Amino acid sequence: MPWIIPGIITSYLTGSIPTAYIFCRLLKNVDIRKSGSGNVGATNASRVLGKPAAVIILLIDIFKGFAAVFFIGDMVVSRYAGLPDITTRALLGLCCICGHNWTIFLRFKGGKGVATTLGVLLGLAFKAAGLKIVFSLTIAAWLAVFILFRIVSLASIISAVALPFFMLALRQPLALVYSSVLLSIFILVRHKSNLERLFRGEEPRLK
């Protein structure tokens, strides 16, 4: 049986769970798509629900990416030998991020994928020793930019652009390099409106 197919579907559906939308509906009966920036993610949820709830949403979105690579990945690679282990996990992670960004449950309008991407990288780091350094460098880049400028979107964009260079510098497998390029493109595409505001000097800073 082609186990990769149910793995891809399960990963996409896992990513598609609209955490921020569900929390805002349950706690305040608010459609997050019509509030703040309209983004279905933790940063916009913090504007509606406050920081404590946003942290929980952030952690769940991170876990979605981790689960796709680590748990769903374990089930698939134990039964499917069509691709190398780490390539299969990277594919499942990309599918999970696609689910978060373009969720089937909200007419394909989702979040920007940063938290879920972080979860995917974390899951891959658990399965490939060399990726632990890449993961650490990516987190460090995000924190450095955020501490300097206090702009979440800028930190996300810079760390996403840096990710493929970290992969190349540390000589990761080509499958992971290509995957990191796709991850960067996903994040840049989802941050188009943020990039426009950044160029205009209108992107809000977090206190």
> What number of domains?
1
Described by strand count, sense and barrel closure, the largest sheet is: none
Structural class, from secondary structure content? mainly alpha
Distance between the termini: 52 Å
Strand proportion, as a percent range, falls in under 5%
Which percent range fits the helix content? Answer: over 70%
Computed CA radius of gyration, to the nearest angstrom: 17 Å
The number of helical runs is 10
Judging from the principal axes of the Cα atoms, what is the shape? globular
What sequence of helices (H) and strands (E) makes up the elements? HHHHHHHHHH
What is the count of β-strands?
0
Low-confidence stretches: none
Oligomer: single chain
Report mean pLDDT, rounded to a whole number: 94
Key words describing this protein structure:
mainly alpha, 207 residues, 0% strand
Give a verbal description of the structure.
With 207 residues, this protein is mostly helical. The chain has one domain. 73% of the residues lie in helices and 0% in strands. It contains ten helices and no strands. Helix 3 packs antiparallel against helix 4, helix 5 runs antiparallel to helix 6 and helix 7 runs antiparallel to helix 8. The longest helix is centred in the first third of the chain and has 27 residues. The chain is globular and about 45 Å long. The N and C termini lie far apart (52 Å).
List the SSEs and their pairings.
Elements: H1 4-16, H2 19-28, H3 42-49, H4 51-77, H5 85-101, H6 114-127, H7 131-149, H8 152-169, H9 174-190, H10 192-200
